[in-house]
Amino acid sequence: MIRKFMRCVAAALCCLPAVSIAASDNPKELEPLFAKVRSEPMIFVVAMGEPNACGRGCTEWIAGEGRFDEGAAQRFREFLGVLGKRDLPIFFNSDGGLLREAVQIGSILRENRMTAGVARTVVEGCQLGFPLDNACRHLMQSKREHKARLYYGGARCASACVYAMVGASTRHVDPGATLRIHSGVGREIDKTENSLRRYVMGMGVDPALVDAAAKIPSRTFRGLSRGEMERFGIETRGVHETPWFAYHGPAGEFLLLKSVTYPTGDTGDEYRTSTVGLACSPFHPSIRFMYHQELTAKESRTPPMIRAKIGDSVIDLTTLNPQKDLVEKSFDLEPRQLQSAIETGSFEITEMFDQSMIKKPSRVVKFSILGLSANIVALESKCASTQVSD
Is the preceding peptide bond at 131 cis, omega within 30 degrees of 0? Predict the structure, then answer.
Protein backbone atom coordinates (compact mmCIF):
# COMPACT_ATOMS: atom_id res chain seq x y z
CA MET A 1 0.00 0.00 0.00
CA ILE A 2 2.86 2.38 0.77
CA ARG A 3 4.45 1.71 -2.61
CA LYS A 4 1.09 2.36 -4.31
CA PHE A 5 0.85 5.53 -2.22
CA MET A 6 4.31 6.68 -3.36
CA ARG A 7 3.46 5.93 -7.01
CA CYS A 8 0.39 8.15 -6.64
CA VAL A 9 2.57 10.88 -5.14
CA ALA A 10 4.97 10.72 -8.08
CA ALA A 11 2.10 10.72 -10.56
CA ALA A 12 0.53 13.76 -8.91
CA LEU A 13 3.81 15.67 -8.98
CA CYS A 14 4.42 14.73 -12.61
CA CYS A 15 1.19 16.48 -13.59
CA LEU A 16 2.22 19.77 -12.00
CA PRO A 17 3.03 22.57 -14.47
CA ALA A 18 5.43 24.36 -12.14
CA VAL A 19 8.79 25.70 -13.21
CA SER A 20 10.82 24.77 -10.18
CA ILE A 21 8.36 25.75 -7.45
CA ALA A 22 8.36 29.35 -8.53
CA ALA A 23 5.65 29.17 -11.18
CA SER A 24 3.23 32.02 -11.79
CA ASP A 25 -0.18 32.32 -13.40
CA ASN A 26 1.03 35.24 -15.52
CA PRO A 27 2.19 33.97 -18.98
CA LYS A 28 4.40 37.05 -19.37
CA GLU A 29 6.30 36.00 -16.25
CA LEU A 30 6.33 32.29 -17.08
CA GLU A 31 7.71 32.50 -20.60
CA PRO A 32 11.13 33.92 -19.63
CA LEU A 33 11.47 31.10 -17.10
CA PHE A 34 10.60 28.45 -19.69
CA ALA A 35 12.96 30.10 -22.18
CA LYS A 36 15.78 29.93 -19.63
CA VAL A 37 15.10 26.23 -19.01
CA ARG A 38 15.03 25.51 -22.75
CA SER A 39 18.30 27.38 -23.31
CA GLU A 40 20.16 25.45 -20.58
CA PRO A 41 18.78 21.87 -20.78
CA MET A 42 20.17 19.23 -18.44
CA ILE A 43 23.20 17.39 -19.84
CA PHE A 44 24.19 13.94 -18.59
CA VAL A 45 27.71 12.63 -19.27
CA VAL A 46 30.06 10.09 -17.74
CA ALA A 47 33.10 11.92 -16.36
CA MET A 48 36.45 10.19 -15.87
CA GLY A 49 38.93 11.71 -13.47
CA GLU A 50 42.05 11.00 -11.46
CA PRO A 51 42.12 8.34 -8.71
CA ASN A 52 39.76 9.30 -5.87
CA ALA A 53 38.48 12.24 -7.94
CA CYS A 54 34.90 11.69 -6.76
CA GLY A 55 35.57 10.07 -3.40
CA ARG A 56 37.47 7.16 -1.93
CA GLY A 57 38.11 4.67 -4.72
CA CYS A 58 35.95 6.66 -7.15
CA THR A 59 37.33 7.73 -10.53
CA GLU A 60 34.13 7.95 -12.62
CA TRP A 61 30.85 9.72 -12.05
CA ILE A 62 27.76 11.04 -13.83
CA ALA A 63 27.57 14.80 -14.30
CA GLY A 64 24.14 16.43 -14.28
CA GLU A 65 24.74 19.97 -15.56
CA GLY A 66 22.02 22.48 -16.50
CA ARG A 67 18.31 22.86 -15.81
CA PHE A 68 15.64 20.20 -15.48
CA ASP A 69 14.00 20.66 -18.86
CA GLU A 70 11.18 18.84 -20.62
CA GLY A 71 12.16 15.22 -21.19
CA ALA A 72 15.16 15.28 -18.82
CA ALA A 73 13.84 12.34 -16.80
CA GLN A 74 13.31 10.15 -19.84
CA ARG A 75 16.78 11.02 -21.15
CA PHE A 76 18.25 10.13 -17.77
CA ARG A 77 16.49 6.75 -17.69
CA GLU A 78 17.78 5.97 -21.18
CA PHE A 79 21.25 7.18 -20.20
CA LEU A 80 21.35 4.76 -17.26
CA GLY A 81 20.10 1.96 -19.49
CA VAL A 82 23.12 2.32 -21.76
CA LEU A 83 25.49 2.27 -18.75
CA GLY A 84 24.39 -1.23 -17.85
CA LYS A 85 25.77 -2.42 -14.52
CA ARG A 86 28.18 0.50 -13.97
CA ASP A 87 27.37 1.78 -10.49
CA LEU A 88 28.27 5.48 -10.64
CA PRO A 89 27.39 8.41 -8.36
CA ILE A 90 25.79 11.52 -9.86
CA PHE A 91 26.82 15.12 -9.14
CA PHE A 92 24.35 17.92 -9.88
CA ASN A 93 25.13 21.54 -10.67
CA SER A 94 21.79 23.19 -11.41
CA ASP A 95 19.65 26.25 -10.75
CA GLY A 96 16.42 24.25 -10.97
CA GLY A 97 13.92 23.84 -13.76
CA LEU A 98 10.78 21.75 -14.15
CA LEU A 99 9.73 20.30 -10.83
CA ARG A 100 8.00 17.28 -12.34
CA GLU A 101 11.18 16.29 -14.18
CA ALA A 102 13.28 16.72 -11.04
CA VAL A 103 10.93 14.54 -9.00
CA GLN A 104 10.93 11.84 -11.67
CA ILE A 105 14.73 11.87 -11.70
CA GLY A 106 14.72 11.66 -7.89
CA SER A 107 12.48 8.59 -8.13
CA ILE A 108 14.84 7.01 -10.69
CA LEU A 109 17.78 7.63 -8.33
CA ARG A 110 15.93 5.78 -5.58
CA GLU A 111 14.92 2.91 -7.86
CA ASN A 112 18.60 2.38 -8.64
CA ARG A 113 19.82 3.02 -5.07
CA MET A 114 22.18 5.71 -6.34
CA THR A 115 24.50 8.15 -4.59
CA ALA A 116 24.19 11.88 -5.31
CA GLY A 117 26.17 15.01 -4.53
CA VAL A 118 26.61 18.63 -5.62
CA ALA A 119 29.64 19.60 -7.67
CA ARG A 120 30.74 21.23 -10.92
CA THR A 121 32.07 18.92 -13.59
CA VAL A 122 34.57 20.59 -15.92
CA VAL A 123 35.32 18.39 -18.92
CA GLU A 124 38.63 18.54 -20.74
CA GLY A 125 38.50 21.50 -23.13
CA CYS A 126 36.11 23.62 -21.01
CA GLN A 127 36.75 26.48 -18.62
CA LEU A 128 35.56 26.58 -15.02
CA GLY A 129 32.42 28.72 -15.16
CA PHE A 130 28.70 28.71 -14.45
CA PRO A 131 26.43 28.51 -16.30
CA LEU A 132 28.08 26.55 -19.09
CA ASP A 133 28.85 28.59 -22.21
CA ASN A 134 27.55 27.36 -25.57
CA ALA A 135 30.92 26.00 -26.70
CA CYS A 136 31.22 23.87 -23.57
CA ARG A 137 27.63 22.66 -23.85
CA HIS A 138 28.26 21.53 -27.43
CA LEU A 139 31.46 19.80 -26.37
CA MET A 140 29.74 17.91 -23.55
CA GLN A 141 26.89 16.87 -25.84
CA SER A 142 29.28 15.64 -28.53
CA LYS A 143 29.88 12.31 -26.77
CA ARG A 144 28.76 10.32 -23.75
CA GLU A 145 32.08 10.12 -21.85
CA HIS A 146 34.70 12.79 -21.12
CA LYS A 147 37.87 13.23 -19.12
CA ALA A 148 37.02 15.77 -16.45
CA ARG A 149 37.70 17.34 -13.07
CA LEU A 150 35.26 17.74 -10.20
CA TYR A 151 35.01 21.03 -8.28
CA TYR A 152 32.89 21.45 -5.15
CA GLY A 153 33.55 25.14 -4.56
CA GLY A 154 30.86 27.31 -6.09
CA ALA A 155 28.67 24.35 -7.04
CA ARG A 156 24.98 24.68 -6.31
CA CYS A 157 21.77 22.71 -6.39
CA ALA A 158 18.83 25.08 -6.28
CA SER A 159 15.07 24.85 -6.14
CA ALA A 160 13.82 21.83 -8.12
CA CYS A 161 17.33 20.34 -8.05
CA VAL A 162 17.05 19.80 -4.29
CA TYR A 163 14.04 17.52 -4.85
CA ALA A 164 15.94 15.49 -7.42
CA MET A 165 18.96 15.09 -5.17
CA VAL A 166 17.01 13.90 -2.09
CA GLY A 167 15.75 10.97 -4.16
CA ALA A 168 19.20 9.36 -3.97
CA SER A 169 19.65 6.64 -1.36
CA THR A 170 23.02 8.09 -0.28
CA ARG A 171 23.56 11.86 -0.34
CA HIS A 172 26.63 14.02 0.30
CA VAL A 173 26.92 17.82 0.19
CA ASP A 174 30.48 19.13 0.36
CA PRO A 175 30.95 22.25 2.54
CA GLY A 176 32.05 24.12 -0.58
CA ALA A 177 28.73 23.49 -2.34
CA THR A 178 25.35 25.06 -1.59
CA LEU A 179 21.70 24.01 -1.59
CA ARG A 180 19.26 26.85 -2.24
CA ILE A 181 15.51 26.96 -1.72
CA HIS A 182 12.61 29.33 -2.29
CA SER A 183 8.81 29.38 -2.31
CA GLY A 184 6.32 29.20 -5.14
CA VAL A 185 3.26 31.12 -6.29
CA GLY A 186 0.24 30.26 -8.41
CA ARG A 187 -3.05 28.43 -8.18
CA GLU A 188 -1.44 25.00 -7.71
CA ILE A 189 1.08 25.90 -5.05
CA ASP A 190 -0.79 24.40 -2.08
CA LYS A 191 -1.26 21.13 -3.96
CA THR A 192 2.36 21.20 -5.06
CA GLU A 193 3.72 21.73 -1.57
CA ASN A 194 1.52 19.03 -0.05
CA SER A 195 2.64 16.53 -2.71
CA LEU A 196 6.26 17.49 -2.11
CA ARG A 197 5.90 16.85 1.62
CA ARG A 198 4.67 13.33 0.87
CA TYR A 199 7.46 12.78 -1.64
CA VAL A 200 10.37 13.89 0.56
CA MET A 201 9.03 11.94 3.56
CA GLY A 202 9.12 8.78 1.45
CA MET A 203 12.75 9.56 0.63
CA GLY A 204 13.62 9.84 4.32
CA VAL A 205 13.67 13.66 4.48
CA ASP A 206 11.76 15.83 6.96
CA PRO A 207 8.74 17.49 5.23
CA ALA A 208 9.75 20.65 7.13
CA LEU A 209 12.13 21.21 4.20
CA VAL A 210 9.12 22.15 2.07
CA ASP A 211 7.80 24.41 4.83
CA ALA A 212 11.17 26.18 5.04
CA ALA A 213 11.13 26.77 1.27
CA ALA A 214 7.60 28.19 1.49
CA LYS A 215 8.86 31.01 3.71
CA ILE A 216 11.35 32.31 1.12
CA PRO A 217 10.00 34.81 -1.46
CA SER A 218 9.73 33.17 -4.87
CA ARG A 219 12.01 35.67 -6.62
CA THR A 220 14.88 35.12 -4.19
CA PHE A 221 16.90 32.18 -2.90
CA ARG A 222 18.18 31.20 0.52
CA GLY A 223 21.04 28.79 1.09
CA LEU A 224 20.49 26.01 3.59
CA SER A 225 22.91 25.92 6.52
CA ARG A 226 24.77 22.76 7.45
CA GLY A 227 22.60 22.54 10.54
CA GLU A 228 19.43 22.63 8.46
CA MET A 229 20.73 19.96 6.10
CA GLU A 230 21.37 17.74 9.11
CA ARG A 231 18.02 18.52 10.73
CA PHE A 232 16.07 17.82 7.55
CA GLY A 233 18.08 14.66 6.85
CA ILE A 234 19.24 15.85 3.42
CA GLU A 235 22.74 14.51 3.85
CA THR A 236 22.78 10.83 4.84
CA ARG A 237 24.81 10.48 8.00
CA GLY A 238 24.06 8.00 10.78
CA VAL A 239 20.37 7.41 11.47
CA HIS A 240 17.69 9.96 10.56
CA GLU A 241 14.04 9.67 11.53
CA THR A 242 11.31 11.91 10.15
CA PRO A 243 8.41 13.20 12.25
CA TRP A 244 4.99 11.61 11.75
CA PHE A 245 3.35 13.00 8.64
CA ALA A 246 -0.46 13.19 8.35
CA TYR A 247 -2.06 12.95 4.94
CA HIS A 248 -5.73 13.39 4.03
CA GLY A 249 -6.28 11.70 0.68
CA PRO A 250 -8.80 12.77 -1.98
CA ALA A 251 -10.66 9.43 -1.75
CA GLY A 252 -11.26 9.81 1.98
CA GLU A 253 -8.22 7.88 3.20
CA PHE A 254 -6.22 9.13 6.18
CA LEU A 255 -2.59 8.09 6.65
CA LEU A 256 0.08 8.68 9.28
CA LEU A 257 3.56 8.00 7.90
CA LYS A 258 7.11 7.99 9.26
CA SER A 259 10.44 6.92 7.75
CA VAL A 260 13.86 6.02 9.14
CA THR A 261 17.05 6.14 7.04
CA TYR A 262 20.10 4.25 8.25
CA PRO A 263 23.43 2.85 6.99
CA THR A 264 23.40 -0.76 5.82
CA GLY A 265 27.10 -1.51 6.32
CA ASP A 266 30.09 -0.72 8.48
CA THR A 267 31.54 1.80 6.02
CA GLY A 268 28.45 4.01 6.05
CA ASP A 269 28.58 4.49 2.27
CA GLU A 270 25.22 2.86 1.54
CA TYR A 271 21.89 3.82 3.07
CA ARG A 272 18.36 2.53 3.07
CA THR A 273 14.98 3.95 4.07
CA SER A 274 12.20 2.04 5.82
CA THR A 275 8.69 3.42 6.26
CA VAL A 276 5.82 2.59 8.59
CA GLY A 277 2.29 3.84 8.25
CA LEU A 278 -1.10 3.76 9.94
CA ALA A 279 -4.10 4.08 7.67
CA CYS A 280 -7.86 4.13 7.60
CA SER A 281 -10.12 4.60 4.58
CA PRO A 282 -13.74 4.12 3.50
CA PHE A 283 -12.60 0.91 1.81
CA HIS A 284 -10.84 -0.44 4.91
CA PRO A 285 -12.32 0.98 8.13
CA SER A 286 -9.96 -0.85 10.50
CA ILE A 287 -6.63 0.71 11.47
CA ARG A 288 -4.08 -0.74 9.08
CA PHE A 289 -0.37 -1.05 9.91
CA MET A 290 1.91 -0.83 6.86
CA TYR A 291 5.62 -1.53 6.52
CA HIS A 292 7.79 -0.73 3.50
CA GLN A 293 11.49 -1.62 3.40
CA GLU A 294 14.04 -1.04 0.67
CA LEU A 295 16.51 -3.84 -0.01
CA THR A 296 20.14 -3.57 -1.02
CA ALA A 297 21.25 -5.53 -4.09
CA LYS A 298 22.67 -8.33 -1.94
CA GLU A 299 19.57 -8.47 0.26
CA SER A 300 17.32 -8.71 -2.81
CA ARG A 301 18.88 -12.10 -3.49
CA THR A 302 18.52 -13.25 0.11
CA PRO A 303 15.82 -11.15 1.85
CA PRO A 304 15.97 -10.91 5.64
CA MET A 305 13.38 -12.44 7.94
CA ILE A 306 11.34 -9.62 9.45
CA ARG A 307 9.38 -9.37 12.68
CA ALA A 308 7.39 -6.41 13.98
CA LYS A 309 6.97 -5.66 17.66
CA ILE A 310 3.86 -3.57 18.22
CA GLY A 311 3.65 -2.89 21.92
CA ASP A 312 3.61 -6.33 23.55
CA SER A 313 2.65 -8.13 20.31
CA VAL A 314 5.25 -9.78 18.05
CA ILE A 315 4.12 -10.32 14.46
CA ASP A 316 6.01 -12.43 11.94
CA LEU A 317 6.36 -10.68 8.57
CA THR A 318 8.54 -13.28 6.86
CA THR A 319 5.66 -14.92 5.00
CA LEU A 320 5.49 -12.11 2.47
CA ASN A 321 6.79 -12.53 -1.06
CA PRO A 322 9.48 -9.84 -1.54
CA GLN A 323 9.65 -7.96 -4.81
CA LYS A 324 12.91 -7.29 -6.59
CA ASP A 325 14.06 -4.35 -4.50
CA LEU A 326 11.76 -4.10 -1.50
CA VAL A 327 9.52 -5.87 0.98
CA GLU A 328 6.06 -4.70 2.01
CA LYS A 329 3.56 -5.93 4.53
CA SER A 330 0.31 -4.69 6.01
CA PHE A 331 -2.09 -6.03 8.59
CA ASP A 332 -4.98 -4.87 10.76
CA LEU A 333 -3.98 -3.41 14.08
CA GLU A 334 -6.21 -3.78 17.12
CA PRO A 335 -6.74 -0.65 19.24
CA ARG A 336 -5.15 -2.37 22.27
CA GLN A 337 -2.01 -3.13 20.24
CA LEU A 338 -1.73 0.49 19.15
CA GLN A 339 -2.25 1.71 22.71
CA SER A 340 0.41 -0.73 23.94
CA ALA A 341 2.86 0.59 21.34
CA ILE A 342 2.18 4.17 22.42
CA GLU A 343 2.90 3.22 26.02
CA THR A 344 6.09 1.41 24.96
CA GLY A 345 7.30 4.44 23.00
CA SER A 346 8.06 2.86 19.61
CA PHE A 347 7.34 0.32 16.94
CA GLU A 348 10.24 -2.11 16.45
CA ILE A 349 11.16 -3.95 13.26
CA THR A 350 13.78 -6.71 13.58
CA GLU A 351 15.68 -7.97 10.53
CA MET A 352 17.37 -11.36 10.77
CA PHE A 353 19.76 -12.48 8.03
CA ASP A 354 20.69 -15.94 6.80
CA GLN A 355 24.25 -16.07 8.14
CA SER A 356 25.27 -18.63 5.52
CA MET A 357 24.51 -16.03 2.84
CA ILE A 358 24.97 -12.62 4.49
CA LYS A 359 27.30 -12.18 7.45
CA LYS A 360 25.30 -9.55 9.29
CA PRO A 361 23.97 -9.52 12.83
CA SER A 362 20.28 -8.97 13.44
CA ARG A 363 19.24 -5.32 13.14
CA VAL A 364 16.48 -3.58 15.09
CA VAL A 365 14.94 -0.46 13.53
CA LYS A 366 12.86 1.64 15.92
CA PHE A 367 10.14 4.06 14.86
CA SER A 368 9.46 6.54 17.65
CA ILE A 369 5.87 7.14 18.76
CA LEU A 370 6.78 10.73 19.71
CA GLY A 371 4.26 13.06 18.08
CA LEU A 372 1.89 10.26 17.09
CA SER A 373 -0.63 10.98 19.84
CA ALA A 374 -1.35 14.40 18.30
CA ASN A 375 -2.77 12.65 15.23
CA ILE A 376 -3.99 9.34 16.63
CA VAL A 377 -7.34 10.83 17.68
CA ALA A 378 -7.96 11.92 14.09
CA LEU A 379 -7.04 8.44 12.83
CA GLU A 380 -9.33 6.66 15.30
CA SER A 381 -12.10 9.16 14.58
CA LYS A 382 -11.78 8.52 10.85
CA CYS A 383 -12.01 4.78 11.35
CA ALA A 384 -14.97 5.16 13.72
CA SER A 385 -16.86 7.46 11.34
CA THR A 386 -16.26 5.06 8.47
CA GLN A 387 -17.60 2.14 10.47
CA VAL A 388 -20.70 4.14 11.43
CA SER A 389 -21.36 5.16 7.81
CA ASP A 390 -21.07 1.53 6.70
Answer: yes
